[in-house]
Amino acid sequence: MIELNALWFLLIAVLFIGFFILEGFDYGVGMLLPFLGKTDRERRQIINTIGPVWDGNEVWMITAGGAMFAAFPHWYATLFSGFYLALVLMLLALILRGVAFEFRSKQPGKRWRQWWDRAIFFGSFLPALLWGVALANIVRGVPIDENMIYTGDLLTLLNPLGLLAGVVAVAAFVVHGAIFLALKTDGAVRERAEAMTKKAGPVLTVLIALLVIVGYFETDVLTTQGVVPPITAIGSGAALLATGWLVNDKRFGWGFFTMCLHIALTVITVFRGLFPRVMVSSLNPDWSLTIYNASSSEYTLQVMTVVALILVPIVLVYQGWTYWVFRKRISTGSKLEY
Amino acid sequence: MDSLSLARLQFAVTTVYHFFFVPLTLGLSVFVAITQTVYWRTGNETYWKMARFWGKLFAVNFAMGVVTGIVQEFQFGMNWSEYARFMGDIFGAPLAVEALLAFFLESIFLGVWIFGADKLPLWAHTGAIWLVAIGSNVSALWILVANSFMQQPVGYAIEGGRAVMTDFFALLANPNVWVQFPHVFSSGMTTAAFFVLGISAWHLLRKTENYQEVFRTSFRWSVVYGLIGVVAVMFIGHSQMQHMVRTQPMKVAAAEGLFQSEDPAGLSLFTIGSLDERKEIFSIRIPYLLSILSYNRLDGEVKGFLDLQQEYEQTYGAGVSYIPPIAINYWSFRAMVGAGMLMLALAGYAFYLIRAGKLEGAGRFLRWAPLAILLPYIANTAGWILTEVGRQPWIVFGLQRVEEAVSPNVTTGMLLFSLVGFTLIYGALMAIDVFLLRYFAVKPDHVFFKADEADPALEAVEMTF
C-alpha cells in the first residue's frame, strides 16, 4: 500500500517545483524589466511575454498553500503564523505586482507607468528573495516549541544561510527570466537578454557553490539524501553547468530546459533532505514537524489523493496548451495587450 | 486593542474588500460570455463590441479580485493558526479543490481570452470566456462549501482534540451550501446587471456617438438579466432564512432584534432595545409576518435571543455570551433587504420603460440609474456581514469560538503592521480601480482605440527606473 503521508509530501514538492519553474521565470522577467526595457514600447514587449501566463503560474503557489492546508494543517499553521511578517511583505508585493501588470498600460502617462514598473520590479524581487529565505529556514531549523508553535521573529529568519538562499533565488530567477526573454522576444530586448544570461549565469554559479558550502555546515540536507553520493544535488549542479554551456552556444531552447531541470533538482534535493520532516525545530529534533505529526487524517488524505490525481494532469494539459498558443516571439511591433 | 480584536478587524476589512470584486466577476463573466456567444452565432458587430467593452471592465475588476484573494487564503494560517490546526482536516480540502478545479481554470483562460482574440478561432475564443465564467462560479461554490461548514458543520467527528472529516460528500451536500451558493450566484447576476445598467443609462442619456446601439442593447439585456437575478436572489434568500431559522436561530433572532421567543412572531420594522436591561424599549412590528416568512404559515415559534442564550448555556456551557452583536445584524439585514427591494423596483420600472417604448424620454431615470450601481454593493456587503457577524461568537458553529482560534504567537504589533499595510494599500488601489473603471466606462473609445497607447512623447525618451 502506498503511504499517503509520503505521497502528499511528494505532491507538495511537485507543486513547489511547478511554482518555482513557472513563476520563477516570470519573477525574473519582472526583475529584469527596468534593465532590459529602455523605452516604453520595449517594456511593454517584455511584460507581454508573460502577460497571458503569469496569473496561471501564480496559481501554483496558491495551490501549494491550499494543499499544505489540506494535507498538513499543522505545517500550514506553523509556517504561516511563524513566518508572519515575511509573508505580509510577500503579500503586499504580490498584490501590487498583480494589479501592476493589468493596470500599467491602461493609462498613457509617463509617471503612471513608471510607478507600476517599480511595482513590477519590487513585486517580483521581494517574493523571490523571501521564498529563498523561507525555504532555507525550513530546512535549517527555526525555533519551534513542543506545541508546534514558532517562537522566533522576523530577524530569526535573516541568518546568513537564509539571506544567501534568498540571493540565490533572486539570481536563479534572473537567469531563468533572461533565458525566457531570449526565447520569447526579438530585436534589442532579445540581444540584451542574451547578454544578460552570460553576465548573470557565472554569478549564479558562484552563489550556488557558496550555498552548497554554507548549507553543508548549517543544515543536514546533503547528508540525509538516502543515497551516496547525493545524485540529485550533483545532477542539479550539472544541469546548471550545462545551461551555461548551452547559453554560450546560443542554444536557448535547450538552455531553458536544463535551467528548469536545475530548479527542479534543487527543490528535490531540499525536499529529499527534509523528508520525513516538513519543518525542522532548532530547539529539539523531537519537536520538528513531520509528515506524520503534522498531517490530516487518513480519510482526508485519501479524498485529496483522488482529487489531485484526477485534476493535476488535466491542469497540466491545458496550461501546457496555452504555452503553445502563445509560443510566438513578441517584438515591439506586435499587437500588445498589456 | 488586543490581538483578537485586531485579527477580527483585519479579517473584516480584507474579506469585505475582497467581496467588492467577487460578485461582479461572477455575474459579469457570464454576461460577457453570453454576449460573445450571440456574436459568434449571429456575426452582428454590436455584440462583439459589447463583449469587448464589458470584457475590458471585467478584466480590470478581475485583477483586484485575484490579488485580494491570495490574502484570504494566507490569512487562515497567519492570524488563525489555531483554527487551521483544529479545522484543517476539513477546511483545507475545499480550498485545495477550489485551487485545482476552479482557480487554475479561470486564471489561465482569462489570459487566453484577453490575449488570444487573434490567435484562436472564434469558437475557441468564446469557449475561453465560458471557462472563465465556469471557473469563477465553481470557485465560489467551493469557497461556500468551506464557509457552510463554519455555519453548519456536517460530515465530521471530533478526534484527538480536532475536527476530522468523515464524509467528503456530506460536506458538498451540506444543505447550507445549496441555499448559500444560489444566493451568491444570483446576487452576482444582479451586481453585474446594475453595473451594466448604470453605465449604459449614462451613455443613453448623453447619446454617446457611435455606441448607441451597443448601450441600448446592453441596457435591455441588463434589465432582463437583473430581473432574473433579483427575483432569484429574493426567493432563495427567503428559503435561506427558513433554513437559518432551523439551523442558526440565534442569527435570525439577532437579525430580527427579537428579545423573547414569540408565537406567532411579528416582523420588526423598527426596534430599539437595551441590551443591558435585556429588554425591548420600542418596536413597530407587522404581526404574524415573521412566522409566515419562517414557516410559510400563520403560526410557529421564532425564538428570541434571550431564550436561546439560556438554551445554549445548557448545551455549550455557562459563562459565555452566545448572542452576536445585535445592532450590526439587525441593521445589516435591513440594509440588504432594503437594497434588494429597491433593485427589484428599479429593474421592474426599467422593464416597463422598455416594454412601453418610453426609454428615450425617461431622462430622470437615466440620470439616476448610474447611482443604482451602489445598491448591489450595499446588499452584498450587508449580506456577508450578517452571515459572518451573526455566527459570533463561533468561528465554527457549536465547535470552536473565535477567541480560541487566533494565532497564539502573533503579537499585536505584527497584527497592527499587517492591518495598516493592507488597509493603506487597499485604500489606494480602490481609488485607482474606480478611476480606471470610470476612464473606460465613460469613454468607450478608450477601449476600442489606442486605450493602451502611450503618449507619443513617451516613446522618444528612455524610461528610467
Task: Describe, in plain words, how this protein is organized in 3D.
The complex is a heterodimer of chains A (338) and B (465). By secondary structure, chain A is mostly helical. Helix content of chain A is 75%, strand content 1%. Chain A has a two-stranded antiparallel ribbon. Chain A is globular. Chain A starts with a helix and ends in a 13-residue tail after the last helix. The relative contact order of chain A is 0.16. The model of chain A has no long low-confidence stretch (mean pLDDT 93). Chain B is mainly alpha-helical. Chain B has two domains: 3-247 and 325-460, no CATH class; 249-323, no CATH class. A two-stranded antiparallel ribbon of chain B has the order 1-2. Chain B has a two-stranded antiparallel sheet with strand order 3-4. Classes of the chains: A mainly alpha (338), B mainly alpha (465). The interface between A and B is large, with 83 and 83 residues.
Low-confidence stretches of chain A: none
> Segments of chain B where pLDDT lies below 50 for 5+ residues?
none
Largest interface: A-B, 83 and 83 residues
Assembly classification: heterodimer
Rg of chain B over CA atoms, rounded to whole Å, is 24 Å
Q: Notable features of this structure?
A:
heterodimer, A: 338 residues, mainly alpha, Formate dehydrogenase/DMSO reductase fold, two-stranded antiparallel sheet, 12 helices, 2 strands, globular, B: 465 residues, 2 domains, 16 helices
Write the layout of secondary structure elements.
The complex is a heterodimer of chains A (338) and B (465).
Chain A: H1 4-36, H2 40-50, H3 54-71, H4 73-82, H5 84-103, H6 110-140, H7 154-157, H8 160-184, H9 188-218, H10 231-248, H11 252-274, E1 277-279, E2 289-290, H12 298-325
Antiparallel strand pairs in A: 1-2
Helix pairs in contact in A: 1-2, 1-3, 1-6, 1-8, 1-11, 1-12, 3-4, 5-6, 6-8, 8-9, 8-11, 9-10, 10-11
Chain B: H1 3-42, H2 45-78, H3 81-115, H4 122-151, E1 156-159, E2 162-165, H5 168-172, H6 177-206, H7 212-247, H8 249-256, E3 267-274, E4 279-286, H9 289-295, H10 305-316, H11 326-355, H12 363-368, H13 374-389, E5 394-396, E6 400-401, H14 412-442, H15 445-448, H16 456-460
Antiparallel strand pairs in B: 1-2, 3-4, 5-6
Helix pairs in contact in B: 1-2, 1-4, 1-6, 1-13, 1-14, 2-3, 2-7, 2-14, 3-4, 4-6, 6-7, 6-13, 7-8, 7-11, 8-11, 11-13
